[in-house]
Amino acid sequence: MPTNPKIIIELGEQFELNEVAVIELFSPLKNWEEKFRQLMLLGKKLPILPIDHQLDEYLVSGCESKVWLVHQWHNQTLSLAATSDAKIVKGLIAVVLAAFNNKTKTQIIEFNLDNYFAQLNLLNQLSPSRANGVHAIINEIKSFVDNVH
Amino acid sequence: MSIRSQFTLFSNQELNTPTPFIYLDNAATTQKPQSVIDVITHFYQHQNANVHRGSYNTANQVTARYEQARVNLANFIGAKSDTNIVWTKGTTESINLVAYAWGETHISDGDTIVVLGSEHHANFVPWQQLALRKGANFEVVNVLENGDLDLAHYQNLMDKKPKLVAVQHCSNALGNIHPIKQLTELAKQVGATVLVDGAQAVAHIKVDVQDIGCDFYTFSGHKMYGPTGIGVLYIAEDIKHEVNPFHFGGEMIQSVTIEKTSFRPIPALLETGTPNISGVLGFDAAVKFMQNEQTQHELASTSDLYNYLISQLSQIDKVRLLGSTENNIGVISFVVDGESVADIGALLNEQNIAVRCGHHCAMPLMQALKVNGTVRVSLAIYNDKSDVDGFINALRKSLDILCC
Ligand SMILES: Cc1ncc(COP(=O)(O)O)c(C=O)c1O
Q1: Averaged over B278-303, what is the pLDDT?
Q2: Given B339, B342, B347, which is nearest A64 (Cβ)?
Q3: What's the whole-number mean pLDDT along residues B247-274?
Q4: Which range has the worst mean pLDDT, A66-80, B220-234, B269-283?
């Protein structure tokens, strides 16, 4: 079943968080507990992906937990919506979407991810499988960019 | 010396930083007492030689110790003789070995194989695949809501006169102890060959293979305080003649000519190649550890700790315990309504708590219980009340973070 482009564009617009805001939220946090609590809060900010968009064909492979990711190009920018059955992963999705949602192809290509995660000081907090899951989501988004003309 | 202090891993500073390391994943593998580690180290430092072929003292001494280990292991599980004991890599290899060395010639088109719905994949997939290769029927005993097997269904399946019944002694995901003697008797009455997967049993309950009456019994050293890479396949006297060689090479041979080869009997028949000598010696030390009085004493009291764990867990909101906690080896699986087990595992890990989160290599059981996975806590003799308290506090904190 194809996604509904209008819904995805709306969901993308509803998620207003950007990378600057995320860095501001995380930079004062010192211990693991504060960081996970913040991830929980961020996860709640993800607009709800309708259940009829949570289809196997939108599952990101390579994630330990289930992650559904849908996208739509609109006015040269990429609208993204995603969710997961695990709350920590939802928080991580929010962190990733903050960097890529509502961005142009050039902005996405030029985005310095290493720098971003270094400032958040988050990836070393994650188990290898969860870190791989984050990379899988990022790679999926990059494939959307590679496949647009 | 306390039991716990014999497990030096727990005093490793690095592991216990910043909070104490709490190991509650004993159904996956147990830690090793110093006596096991010492035997292995001593072997390589002072005695290393191959077995069964030396003309010199060291090799003969190693061979004697290696064969004595077989005798000790036979006594440990009540086998008739040391010739009923075959060394393998572990439970998984033992079961696959039976599937080929016995199954290839004794299962054919239209035969029936019965397993429980709660089997570990190691005692499920080899039989499912054998059935597919041979055109045999693969029957799975239903799991009741409380995780026990459906005995009435088991009895119905016996009417199909199965050729093989392969059952676990205890469930690795839930810890419940099956009525193995009764299951074996029912299967024997209809002429079935019976294999018992004892991987989870041997560290917790006294096993007597002759009393059970099964044809094959198997377990792994590493789940009973021994090293990895070594396990046992017990083969009862009466079934030996039905077992064929599977791997070919040295050690198993009586004589070889260009035209033909004659073989030595079991166990040599199934033990071709240089064996895991240090593993066998370490396993032997683990058997001694299991048999010593202090261990037996501690073992008797693990049920108190288990009951304490269950009572503490039951008090936490939204925690749903799975499986029967009666007649249990000290394992509890649970889910928390509205939370994913992966999240719980991640937050417990942050607090230096080792538990297993997932399907526990028992996907058919997860399907029967209608869950994607569980958090599994499994106790061993070195666990104490402070482990349980630490775990419960950490779980409460994890749920507080997840539900905020
Ligand atoms: C009931 C059961 N059977 C078989 C196995 C496989 O044992 P191993 O990995 O040592 O071969 C396990 C291990 O988890 C188990 O719990």
Answers
A1: 95
A2: B342
A3: 95
A4: A66-80
Burial state string for A69-90 with b = 16 or more CB within 10 A and e = fewer than 16: bbbbbeeebbbbbbbbbbbbbb
Its pTM surpasses 0.90 = yes
- pLDDT tens digits, A48-68: 998 988 989 999 987 778 899
Long-range residue pairs from B351-355, CB within 8 A, at least 24 positions apart, any chain: B351/B19, B351/B394, B351/B397, B351/B398, B352/B15, B352/B16, B352/B18, B352/B19, B352/B20, B352/B21, B352/B22, B353/B22, B353/B24, B353/B390, B353/B391, B353/B394, B354/B21, B354/B22, B354/B23, B354/B24, B354/B25, B355/B24, B355/B25, B355/B391
Cis peptide before B267 (omega within 30 of 0): yes
Q: Does B82 touch chain A if contact means CB atoms closer than 8 Å?
A: no
Q: Print burial letters for B58-87: b (CB count within 10 Å at least 16), e (below 16).
A: ebeebbebbeebbebbbebbebeebbbbbb
Which residues, listed in sequence order, are joined to residue A67 by a DSSP beta bridge?
A: A84
Q: What is the pLDDT of residue B122?
A: 98
Query: Looking at residue A53, what is its pLDDT?
Result: 86
Look at residue B191 in the predicted model and tell me its pLDDT.
98
Structure tokens at B109: 């088109």
* Active-site pick, B170, B214, B361, B404: B361
Look up the ipTM and state it.
0.88
Mutation target for B interface from A29, A34, A36, A129: give the one with most B CBs within 10 A.
A36
